[in-house]
Amino acid sequence: MDLKNLENNWVKEFPKPIIIAGPCSAESESQMLETAKRIKESNAEVPIFRAGIWKPRTKPNGFEGVGTIGLGWLKKVKQEYGFKTATEVANAHHVAAALEADVDILWIGARSTVNPFTVQEIAEALKGTDKPVFVKNPVNPDLALWIGALERLLGQDVKNLGVIHRGFSTYQKTKYRNIPNWQIALDFKNQYPNIPMLVDPSHICGNRTGLAGIAQEAMNVGYEGMIIESHCNPDEAWSDASQQITPEVLAELINNLQIRNSDISVFDDEMGRHRTLISDLDFNLIELLSQRMKISEKIGTLKKDNNIAIFQPERWKIITEYALQKADETGMSSEFIEKVFKAIHEESIEVQNNI
């Protein structure tokens, strides 16, 4: 059996979209129970409660989770409010403890997915389990690494699988904590339409303001649901406070989602995917142009300090020749490319004039 033949019938147990929600980290029993109670009372259709028991941190000496004591709190949430439960596992010890505590759904985090040795250890510890196991995309944009993690799980007879799109790390400063890079996620979805994909707007955005937009965009292109962080008192959260929302805000976000009908035409489905990819590229274009103008500002300062004219005809000639050469290589209209670069150059001159 390979990944394309998996039936993943576990998905049928849940309403669509599948919503997994709860705090980034388990902090105390009271915090867990209050969050669960308010999610339940909000009447949002959230069947699965999540909480981080072990937290991988970028630097040492930060809060790294409460450990196995938090599994008891998860179990109490299940008993008192009827949620299925979910948590992240990062090594064989985590797997053994989570299975013993009867956590219903497990996921492998982005920092673990990037390491095949870690994934193999987790897969062997999970051997033969019928619990659903999700794999987050690796921190770097590597589709093969993502697929390879799932193949390792399947190799250990783990057949109830799913993936989570949480965005990709970048050294550039953008409005996202992790850029969506929809193309990679949609490439995965095209290759393995039978493997459910959830979006993680919390880790893509890194803040509360963009969550609804990312969640809706994922629904537009056929994702099966989302995993999102909700805390009874987000501002006081011990980890990722800026990206967590209250249960009441969560309910509003879920209720405002526009979900595609199951009989949506192939044409509309493909159109939505293409538009999402165009939005992704547009974002990258704007970010690159912003970076280019910041460099123009530095050049403007140098020209001012050295009393050099802003417009340099020879430089404009070099830019134009290069642009036209690239247009020819890529089969694009030379007239269009010349117009684009002329507009960029004019804005660059304006920026330097302001200096």
From TrEMBL:
EC annotation from Swiss-Prot or TrEMBL: 5.4.99.5
Residue stretches making up the Chorismate mutase domain: 265-355
Molecular function per GO: chorismate mutase activity; transferase activity
Record bears the keyword Transferase: yes
SMART domains: CM_2
InterPro entries per UniProt: Aldolase_TIM, Chorismate_II_sf, Class-I_DAHP_synthase, CM_dom_sf, CM_II_prokaryot, DAHP1/KDSA
Entry keyword set: Transferase
Enzyme class per UniProt: isomerase
Domain of life: Bacteria
Protein name from the UniProt record: chorismate mutase
Organism: Kaistella chaponensis
